[in-house]
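Cross-check.
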Amino acid sequence: MDYNHFFEKIKDIFPKIETNTSSDLSESEFKTRYGYPEVPVLLKSRFNELHQSIDFKALDEKFDSREWKFDSTTEQSGAEMFLKDYLQKETNEYYLKTNIRDIDFHIDYPDFFKCWYRAFPTEKEKKELVWLYYGNKNTFTNIHTDIWKFNSWLLLLKGKKLWFIYPKAYNSIIRENKEKYGIDHLETLMNGNVKPFIAVQNPGEMMYVPSDTFHFVINLEASMAYTGNFMNETNYENVKQYFAKSDNSNNKKFINSIIATGMTHLKIRNL
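Predicted model, tokenized:
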């Protein structure tokens, strides 16, 4: 499918994801308008400085320096190749996901999205929840919610992405048959009652997706993204509920310790 052409068909049919053009949106204002009420938003200007601070020449050299393990967009096994070969093939069968900890390249973390899990001091090894994604045109991430009911942020570094984000009011309907509302049923979604909100994201723009929100994304161009998941006072109850259903008591204790520490620091900051 030509997804750029498809976007032209749907841009006046599907509702739009809210956008915010402020370059000086404060963290507290963000939480009031989007964080606590769990509203997805495309921040068009707030992270321009972060985007401009990245040494793209050095980053490109890092990616070009060796072969990478690419994940498959299907159920097939992955493949190892150089990035230049991947881009030249223009294949949409693979995408690259690399842990920011493992790439040996520094990009400032957007502290705007403070993460209690990330900040929690512990000798226990924690999962790295910040990545770089590289995908050719027409690669996609199909319908899903994010890990552990964490919120997510995604700063687009290169390319162009088309986002589909469902209101949380549809969660129970979607969970009955999740694939029905994903990328394989785009034509059906045009005529259905359950419609996602959409937005096109360009370089320098940041997308925020609240906890437990179904969404999927298509690369309209070859794209590189800097992305992460986080928990804090805006979504800790969702995270707590998720781990309350876990059979692992150690995980429950660990996440409850993180939440308790985060709440304590929050109270101290507000004194």
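The chain has one domain: 3-232. The longest strand covers residues 151-158. Passed to J.P. for a second look.
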